[in-house]
Design brief:
About 15% of the residues lie in helices and about 30% in strands. By secondary structure, it is of the alpha+beta class. The chain has one domain: Cyclophilin. Strands 1-2-7-5-6-4-3-8 form an 8-stranded antiparallel β-barrel. The longest helix has 13 residues. The chain starts with a strand and ends in a 5-residue tail after the last strand.
Amino acid sequence: METESVWLNTDLGDLLLEVYVSRAPLSSDAFLRYVDAGRYNGATFCRTVRPDNDHGTAPTALVQATVIDSVGLHPRVAHEPTAVTGIHHLDGTLSLARLEPGSASPAHFFICIGEQPSLDFGGGRAADGQGFAAFGRLIEGFELVRRIHRARTLPDAPDPYMKDQMLAEPIVIRAARRKPASF
């Protein structure tokens, strides 16, 4: 399996990600293009979904990162369901946020906290049954991601669905880059 490693330096410390290039080529390519272009530099982990603030059915747990100035940076990615890639939403899985299939963009990705089968194809979280496009996993930094997940949230949000989910103090991604083989 062909993979690429990506290092994210955040306000709280470092994360090491593994991107499954051969298993989810469309999602991985879009994500890696953002890394290479420096578009995640200055992005933030801005949202946390937990059982106490989740507004969807089949409760889930995750932290989401978003490119702050994403105007014009939203190339849409054709949907790669877990039924095709075989990448399931387990603890630390990386996935693209979306509305309908084909609306995902690397400008919004999330990291699962614990096993989240409801995010897989047929899992029930997405009304269309298509699930979300998983494309990699967290290798190092689980405690940091759990710290973000537990962080204080604001009572309001631009979208009512995200009420109580937006971090009071978003965590900045200072730098994102591919990890060289000799890292």
